[in-house]
Amino acid sequence: IATISVKDTIYMSTEGNCITDVPKRSTLHAGQTPEAFKLGKYLKIHEERSYEEIAAVTGGAEFAFRCGMKVFLSKGEEINFKLTTPEDLERFEQIVNSNRL
Predict the structure, then answer these.
(1) All residues at 6 or more sequence positions from 73 whose CB lies less than 8 Å from its CB, including other chains
(2) How far apart are the first and last CA of the chain?
(3) Helices marked H in 1-101 — which ranges?
(4) pTM for the complete prediction?
(5) How far apart are CA 54 and CA 67, in angstroms?
(6) What is the pLDDT of residues 55-91, one digit of tens each?
(7) Which residues make Cβ contacts (< 8 Å) with residue 36, sequence separation at least 6?
(8) CB 51 within 8 Å of CB 29
(9) 82 and 88 in contact (C-beta within 8 Å)?
(10) For the segment 22-39, what is each residue's pLDDT rounded down to a tens digit?
(11) Coil, strand or helix: which one is 6?
């Protein structure tokens, strides 16, 4: 999976109203898409799990990791970002309009 280093301090909060942990930033990586897996192994772990187990994760790499696959990190790029929010779309439009692609 392609990843980029996390620049911001990440705060964990199990209750949602106070900090319960601050992970060491140097150990954190933000995952990017697309992700790549060996099809046979990846298909097998899907066949062995229930719909609920598959639906409980947020991405393919998380699912593979939780099912015991070794997931390797590769260097990603800042320009590779998801278009999820209106702000993401604005950022994308600014990049396109500035011819930085």
Answers:
(1) 1, 2, 3, 29
(2) 22
(3) 39-47, 51-55, 60-66, 86-97
(4) 0.78
(5) 10
(6) 999 999 999 999 999 999 999 999 999 999 999 999 9
(7) 1
(8) no
(9) yes
(10) 999 999 999 999 899 999
(11) coil
